[in-house]
Amino acid sequence: MAVQPRGDHQPEPPAQPRGDYPAEPPAPATTVLILNGPNLGRLGSRQPEIYGSATLADIEAACAALASRLGLSVDVRQTDDEAELIGWIHEAADRRLPVVLNPAAFTHYSYALRDALAMRTAPLVEVHLSNPAARETFRHFSVVSAVADGTIAGFGPQSYELAIRAVARLLCR
Predict the structure, then answer these.
(1) Region label for 47, one of left (φ > 0), alpha (ψ between -120 and 50) or beta (otherwise)
(2) Cα separation of 64 and 70, whole Å?
(3) What is the 3-state secondary structure (H, E, C) of the chain?
(4) Nearest-angstrom CA–CA distance, 46 and 149
(5) With CB atoms 3.0 to 4.6 Å apart as the test, which of 9, 26, 46, 72 could cross-link to 42 if both were Cys?
(6) Which residues carry out catalysis?
(7) Which residues pair with 99 in a beta bridge?
(8) Residue 21 — φ and ψ, nearest 5°?
């Protein structure tokens, strides 16, 4: 599947030998909030045929290692509580922190989350382990996508790593 560039598309900088981006890392100590919604604390045991066998701790370790190579740090959080997630989004906006967000079930109906995300002051990448478009019909719509810089879905735990790479590039614009 070919990706059509938008009219404001700039040429991609060449990849570094390891494939890490960007060529010049963002300012040291930039923290990326990696926020996870309901039931993601159950990864590893929750429907492994859909979500795989990796735990959230496994994903956190992989994200921390990649972020370090990119000159970033990560703060990984998970909640089953919509209000707590929205509080973290407000914190990110106030501190101008980039966010990688797996909103889980909130993806499809949380207008309160969507409105909080619309106040963002730094890059936002929506992420999903599975491909919602290939699942049940009710999962096909995201209220988050319209306020995110982009969405990465369907690559299992690697979705998070791709999202961190995207955030790193967005920070260098």
Answers:
(1) left
(2) 10
(3) CCCCCCCCCCCCCCCCCCCCCCCCCCCCCEEEEEEECCCHHHCCCCCHHHHCCCCHHHHHHHHHHHHHHCCEEEEEEECCCHHHHHHHHHHHHHHCCCEEEECHHHHHCCHHHHHHHCCCCCCEEEEECCCHHHCCHHHCCCCCHHHCCEEEECCCCHHHHHHHHHHHHHHCC
(4) 28
(5) 46
(6) 51, 128
(7) 33, 124
(8) -125, 160
| Percent with pLDDT over 90 in the chain | 60
Nearest CA to 34 out of 138, 164, 155 is that of 164
96 exposure class (CB count in 10 Å sphere: 0-12, 13-18, 19+): exposed
Answer left, alpha or beta for residue 33, where phi above 0 means left and psi between -120 and 50 means alpha: beta
Contact (CB, 8 A) for 93 and 121: yes
Which two structure tokens, joined as six digits, stand for 142? 């995201």
- The pTM for the full model equals 0.79
Least confident of 42-51, 55-64, 153-162: 42-51
Write out the two tokens for 95: 């501190």
Rg (alpha carbons) of the chain, rounded to whole number? 15
What's phi and psi for 3, nearest 5 deg?
-100, 130
| Residue whose structure tokens are 């382990």 | 129
